[in-house]
Amino acid sequence: MKLYNYFRSSSSYRVRIACNLKGLQYEYLPIHLNRNGGEQFSEEFLSLNPQALVPVLDDGESRVSQSLAILEYLEETHPQTPLLPYASKDRAAVRELSQYIACEMHPLNNLRVLKFLTGTLGLDETQKQTWITHWLRTGLTALERQLSTSPTRGAFCFSDRPTIADCCFVPQAFNARRFGVDIAEYPTLATIERNCEALDAFRDAHPSRQPDTE
Amino acid sequence: MKLYNYFRSSSSYRVRIACNLKGLQYEYLPIHLNRNGGEQFSEEFLSLNPQALVPVLDDGESRVSQSLAILEYLEETHPQTPLLPYASKDRAAVRELSQYIACEMHPLNNLRVLKFLTGTLGLDETQKQTWITHWLRTGLTALERQLSTSPTRGAFCFSDRPTIADCCFVPQAFNARRFGVDIAEYPTLATIERNCEALDAFRDAHPSRQPDTE
Description:
alpha+beta, Glutathione S-transferase Yfyf (Class Pi), Chain A, domain 2, 9 helices, 4 strands, 7% strand
């Protein structure tokens, strides 16, 4: 199994966690999102993924991009250590949290968006930080509100076992800290993050421990 | 089944299409995203969905938010007229397209983001349009590149039957047109849109035909 990814990419980080939780080995193929104008735009990479994004998983059978599509694919093809609960109602709860992070939080603060705001639109550093902080706080506040009152929360986002929601949450918490927002202000989220970080699967997937870490 | 939604919301539109394709009746409960500072921020609505977003589906058994979580939930609980293919490899292909639209395109041009850019960050109308057009063209170009070379494309995004990828694509095409980007410039996408629009399920879900249409 090959995983085209980038150490700091939040969506790559999600897939690394899931592979570790499921005990799946993979070959790490680094794609540098900044060097040479972005290696994801090379002809070679575009033929792998026309979306010009990491991560991409290639297991010899399929080539899949989009982290949540990859997580669902891994769940179907490697059901050991399930990352989704059994009942549809519970699966929906986990997917709802995952999609919130993937659709409402992460897309607003990723590299290409910040580059466009400061480059083409000419936002200064203060405006950029206002933008980043606003979306992080909006998202973390909603997640805290949802998880602090959730009857199905356990040590993790859902129950006492990690799910794809935790695979999405931990990279988002890492991003928040990197951009100066302290997760400790959100007590439920801080506890879940601590519980995740206690597991090797999460620790080994951290951006500071990858072959292309700078 | 109750669907809290808003006529112009792209993610609400996705769920309406899926319900129509599956022949599911629902009670339409309009939540006005602009009126009274946004009805999604009311205490009453927050108790339904702490994420303060539409759509929300309530079938008496579960209350689910996030359109893609809802589509997966409907697929599991009402498997008739499947909106995902059978094989994991194929399901991954459909989810990959859906996630691209839901995570890389839609979040950048939705109402709350545009309001923040022009409000708090003070972008003028020209800058706003530059932002909108850039992300629409980036996204549509990638989708056209992917679908025009896809061996699994048929009359629809995947094969000759509509899937959740089409449920995501058609509302995005509607959005593009609304913001002045002509889908006709993307021949593969234009054909798929035409094929979808030929079906009642898509036509009846259109923002111009809802109880709260203005």
